[in-house]
Design brief:
Layout (H helix, E strand, L loop, with lengths): L11 E6 L3 E7 L5 E8 L5 H13 L7 E6 L2 E2 L6 E2 L11 H9 L2 E6 H12 L7 E7 L3 E7 L2 E2 L37 H4 L1 H12 L5 H10 L2 H25 L4 E4 L6 H14 L9 E3 L6 H6 L3
Parallel strand pairs: 1-4, 4-7, 8-11, 11-12
Antiparallel strand pairs: 1-2, 2-3, 5-6, 8-9, 9-10
């Protein structure tokens, strides 16, 4: 199946804004990214942030009518206010209207995990599937839900947050009960991402190892790393099986740093397919295809 072309692309700029850098590019109708630019994100000063972003946009050729942003944060669809822990200067700010007034063009914003899911659903690993739940296995865990090619956005911009909610319980002998950045305790995010995996390994084996070292040890047969990864895969596959049962997703593209480990994705897929209600012989958890460009490509579909 050919990639779904974006016919609005000739007049559209897309941006991917994170806590460290903001990237911008024009997405062509056949989903090539051209005129790429990148600068450091001025995360603590709103005026500097807006001015720096505006300068990037103004370097583009004339004829740009709109800009779509993939943001490492949330935008409330009712108020347009953003919440971005790593870009504090825009938290509580209705950024889209502000940039629209400054630039004189339409501005749309979506969460970066949502843009990732949208890109993979329409032009990546999820093509041909009606329901796609994209997941991020990075520093933490995140996700986005796409149904029939349309991004599902909930209240306050919250959808697909499978890493949050009190999944674990105090006193559990198999998993630590840790405080989460969202304000709760026992969330999957406290264990599911790279930093969480490191905490879990220390709790379970009393070894200080990086997530990369844990993965390497697991693949080479080190007993302590195998013990950690057995519990890690079991917990993540529990949560993913529930998400698949609830959403009906037939494809779950995985992105983020941990997703680059093929054996992890394959192990998660095997475990999930044993636990979800819909039985299938074909993989459900798969590696994403669009890499670091998924945010920019997904933004083009907003």
């Amino acid at each position: 199946m050919a990639k779904l072309m974006n016919t609005r692309a000739p007049t559209l700029l897309c941006a991917d804004i994170g806590g460290s850098h903001m990237r911008i590019a024009r997405v062509t109708p056949d989903l090539n990214l051209v005129e790429r630019r990148q600068i450091a994100t001025p995360g603590h000063d709103l005026t500097l942030f807006v001015d720096a972003f505006s300068q990037m946009v103004h370097q583009s050729p004339v004829g740009i009518e709109a800009i779509h942003l993939s943001l490492a944060g949330l935008q409330d669809p009712e108020t347009a206010e953003c919440n971005a822990a790593n870009i504090p200067c825009i938290s509580g700010i209705a950024l889209a209207p502000l940039l629209s007034q400054k630039l004189g063009m339409t501005v749309r914003i979506a969460n970066d995990a949502d843009c990732f899911a949208l890109a993979e659903a329409r032009a990546g690993a999820g093509m041909g599937h009606d329901n796609v739940f994209g997941i991020i296995l990075g520093t933490g865990v995140g996700g986005g839900l796409v149904q029939n090619g349309r991004l599902i956005v909930g209240r306050q911009g919250l959808t697909g947050e499978w890493g949050h909610g009190p999944l674990l319980r105090r006193g559990d002998r198999d998993y630590p009960y840790l405080a989460c950045g969202c304000g709760q305790s026992g969330c999957l995010d406290t264990i599911g991402g790279a930093r969480g995996l490191e905490k879990f390994h220390f709790w379970r084996c009393e070894e200080v190892r990086s997530s990369r070292e844990i993965m390497t040890g697991w693949l080479s047969g080190e007993p302590s790393c195998q013990r950690t990864m057995e519990g890690y895969i079991d917990l993540l596959s529990d949560a993913l099986a529930i998400m698949i049962n609830v959403t009906g997703a037939s494809c779950v593209p995985a992105g983020g740093g941990l997703s680059t480990v093929d054996d992890l994705i394959e192990a998660l897929d095997r475990a999930v397919r044993k636990k979800c209600l819909c039985k299938t012989a074909t993989p459900i958890i798969v590696k994403a295809k669009l890499g670091n460009d998924a945010g920019l490509i997904g933004a083009s579909y907003l």
